[in-house]
Amino acid sequence: MTEKAIFIDTSKCIGCRACQVACKQWWGLPAELPAENVAGSVQFQYKFSGSYQNPGDLSHQTWNLVRFKEEAGSDGKMKWFFTPDRCRHCKNPPCQEGCPVPGVIVKDESGGVYYNVEKCGDCAKQCAEYCPFGIPKFDGDIRRAFKCRFCIDRVHEGKTPACVKTCPPGAIQFGDKTEMMDKAQARLAVIQTDNPEANIYPGFDYNNFWLLLYAPEKYSLAQADFTRKEKARLAAARTSRKPFTVAGFFKPLTYLGMLGGLGLAFFRRVDAGKNPEGKIDRHGK
Amino acid sequence: MTNHWTDLANVDYFLVIGSNPAENHPISFHWVTKALENRGAKLLVVDPRFSRTAAKAHFYAPLRSGTDIAFVNGMINRILENDLYNADYVKYYTNASFKVNAAFRAYMEAHTPFPGTFPGLNTSANPATYDKTAWGYQVDPNTGIPLKDDTLKDPDCIFQIMKQFFSRYTPEVVEKITGCPQATLMQITDEYAKSGAADKAGTIMYAMGATQHTYGTQNIRAYGILQMLLANIGIAGGGINAMRGESNVQGATDQGILYHYLPAYVPSPTNTQQSLGIRAIGTDMVSTAGSKVVTSAASNFSNLSVAVNDILVFYAGNNTGNGIKITSVDSANQLTLQYAVNKAGTGQSFMIIRAGSYLAANIPVTNDPQSINWWHNRSKYLVSMLKAWWPNQVNVTAGVPTGAETAYNYLPKRSGDYSYISLWEAVHAGTIKGLVAMGMNPAVGSPNSNRTRAALDKLDWMVIMELWETETAQFWKRPGVDPATINTAVYLLPAAAMVEKEGSVSNSGRWCQWRHKAVEPPGMAKDDLWMLNQFYKRIKSRYQASGGAFPDPILNMNWNYEGTEGIPEAAKVSRELNGYYTADNTVVQNFTKLTYTGSTACGNWVFSGCFASADKVEQNMMDRRDNMDTSGIGLYSNWAWCWPLNRRIIYNRASVDPKTGLPWDPSRKVVQWSTADAKWLGPDIVDGGATNSGIVTESSYRLPFIMNNDGMGRVYGSFSLADGPFPEHYEPMESPVENILHPAQPTSPCVYKYPGDTNMQLNVFGDRSKYPIVGTTYRVAEHWQAGAMTRNLSWLAEVQPSMFVEMSLELAAEKGIANGDQVRVSTIRGSIEAYALVTGRLKPFQMNGQTVHQIGMPWHYGYAGIAKGDSANILTPSVGDVNTRIPEFKAFLCNVEKI
């Protein structure tokens, strides 16, 4: 397989969030609907995020999130930035460096980085802490990390990732990395005439890159922070806590939880993670 | 849509007004984005709120909700003042050169400044109505053809009257009304007016933001006038494009779901039209061009019973389309006509229509030989429809389908107001006791929905076909209601979802696409056709068993949709819609084969052709899936089927220069007239007949706007509209400001006022001192209509989980509200609670020295489903558009406070 890439052209993104829902649908990820705890309330049933950005952040159940940010420009004109945020699929993934268990984090020949969930175990969440963008999210109940999987199963079947397939304006594109780079560069040249700040983010060293019209902060996209890895190492050393223990944290209560409602979600995701071409429950909610 | 979705890729200038396609029609952006990327198209967005569409715009103009007419009239004025219109198009293809009755100009000159009412208003009726005599054209007393001045200089010609009328809408005035800075208006106008060039195309994309006002129809008139002036109708990348709100609402409209239409836009009869009115039909009428007296040599003309005021309509021959009133009949059956017959000739078939009949009221007439006047065919469509429904009743005697009168008598005759709000008032009044709701959630979707919910309480029974137990399905146990007090019998029939049933789905671009069943419906759920078939069979058997009032229409109805094992098949319905020859039961090729003699049956003339690849050759054309485009303009003519006649762009005769018959823009050829071939060439199917010339100097030249009896695009008119020949700015029924154009006539004079009620919910309008804030409602990308299909899905509940109200930073500061606070929004009708979403995307309007705040909210929520919330429609008023009665959802007065 030739190396692939996802190219997100934000000049075309309309913030419809079809990609966000398609991701949940394909991977059978549950919806996050945090309760507001207003007794008997119909209208204030759920917590309010304060914007169109729902849920508020990426999580172990939300691997692709459209971020919304608005700003009144210096010319008085309104701007509303939106773009999907997810794993950048690094060339040399720092998360892989951070993972103590071999074979959990795989840099696939397609360029995608995916986590083998059934091998992933109870640890010190170093993948999340090593990530320069803070992308992997930890499921506290089953103590495993999750993030965008590059729709590795689809890609190996010659299909495009679910988000790409669904994007109405064609803002999310997928193909051979060289072709995507060419497209991005050509598009950048056009866009730059009206938008001098336009840039490719985070760069072509990644298998998921963006064409942004403005600086990444405008879109609430994190700039790469490679010091996170060092900080995490130092913090681990300071507390002299072992970076990982495998079985020690599997307490009886956790097993009980797995047998209950949470367990269903767990097994579905474990199943999905078994191998790139593995079967997937597409009907989960 | 005059055009279609894929055609959006051909656009140079998008004017998005009264819509929010990035959020509400996201797939449209598949094509919009292509135009932006490949053509360098410009996106102009006019919206009270900075939407996700506005975020992609090159130019954005804010305007106060309900002031679209002022804005667009301001554009029209600037275009007229600065000669930015397309002069050729205006001269050849619009009625700008027509002269209006002198009384109209006299009235306008005597009433300066314009008082907000046109000549002929009768205010004693409710609603007030216009006598439109003065609005009419001046016609030649001998020919009956409208008088024109091609120089456009005559003071009575429409162009001059319109210049005068629109001149009031200066940028200063528009700013004072709309709150849009005049520089922005001028910038948007100048940019959009570039689409008036022959080689440029501009489209208007609109939706409910335009229509849901008391003057919603006139909003669309204003858009139409703008497009006419800029030569944007009939061309690829142009058009006036209504983006429908539901996937098959176009199909529902085509099939006659509106209360004033039978299927296919054939008006439903009223109680003053007790006869169909076919007096006589025949051929070989001898006429003399220029003569007002016609005689017949044919034997079938000799036994005519003809009376004064009957109408003579020609259906074939030299005078096709003409319809002329008979003013006297002598003993030799020699007819004297109101106007002269234009052309002599034999072989002309004709029909004589009884005065005062249905057909006399519904067949538009013309005496202009260049006007195709397509609706003169209405008699064919109605008779063929009656033949499809009651084949044994529509018999033919002496060449006249006499039995058609019997079948016509089966049709209900409209005697009252059956518009949406009025139906609910009839439920309140106890006139309507039962309700069948198919995929309809009025407890959330109705204006003033507390009142609608109270009306549901009064029903004896309700049958609801639904995918989920919606708010309407569970109205009897809604919050605050004791189910023991509700006596309505409620039947919830589980319905199949879209992928669980077969049939055609018509999109906004009139494409009828066949959809196959992907999976079986779950549990006991059944598709709509199955349920309707059961309805019919069970009702019929009840009539058969026990009689009843007027059983004939039910007992005699043609109902043959069942296939094997008694399962009804959608294809059998489609075949009937396509139409067939009654002699041998083979399919007709399309509606040009339909007759008024009973020899054809057709359930829906606009669908005729959907089930035939050639005459008498059956094929489900809607099931075609060839996605190769050979047109060069993305017509995809072999993908599915499009009404009418698989024509993808309607009014396409106007896409050519009438001096040459060649496309205005050769790079975007839709059709062209070929003198060598003496016919029109593609890629599209030409409007109005392939052999009528497209060159204005040729004798067989025909005018392009074939559905208008004058053949022209109307920059003035529409005589069918109740509230004026030009769009005039009126305030919504609830407005925060005076109408600065005519303070004595702030709102439309023709609004129907419901009688007041004791609950102060009907015909009451909020006072701006108590409710100073403009409220509006809209949809978001994440939810669908009244929410049943999305608020019941956890993934869609997740992306917009709660009801919210969007407001500006300025208003929030004034009211002490922070982002995320719980707030109460109230109108004179009711109040709701919601989260506050404080955003810079809404801004207060500065108008005429006054600050006006506006808030906006989605109307999707209700008390059922996963994502629940208060319904915005508790706030909206029970008042409808003058012409269509669509409720005024989009502009009302409210107040907001922190809870």
CATH fold call of chain A? Alpha-Beta Plaits
Q: Find the count of extended strands of chain A (DSSP E, 2+ residues).
A: 10
Strand content of chain B: 15-25%
Task: Name the average pLDDT of chain A.
Answer: 85
CATH class of chain A: Alpha Beta
Percent range of helical residues of chain A: 25-40%
**Gyration radius of chain B, rounded:** 28 Å
Strand element count of chain B: 38
Biggest sheet character of chain A:
4 strands, mixed
- Described by the principal axes of the CA atoms, the overall outline of chain A is globular
- Overall 3D shape of chain B: globular
Biggest β-sheet description of chain B:
7 strands, antiparallel
CATH class type of the domain at 420-507 and 511-553 in chain B: Alpha Beta
Greatest interface and its residue counts? A-B, 39 and 50 residues
Number of domains of chain A: 1
- Given helix and strand content, the structural type of chain A is alpha+beta
The separation of the N and C termini of chain A measures: 32 Å
CATH architecture of chain A: 2-Layer Sandwich
Strand order of the largest sheet of chain B: 10-16-13-14-15-12-11
How is the largest sheet of chain A built, in terms of strand order? Answer: 8-1-10-9
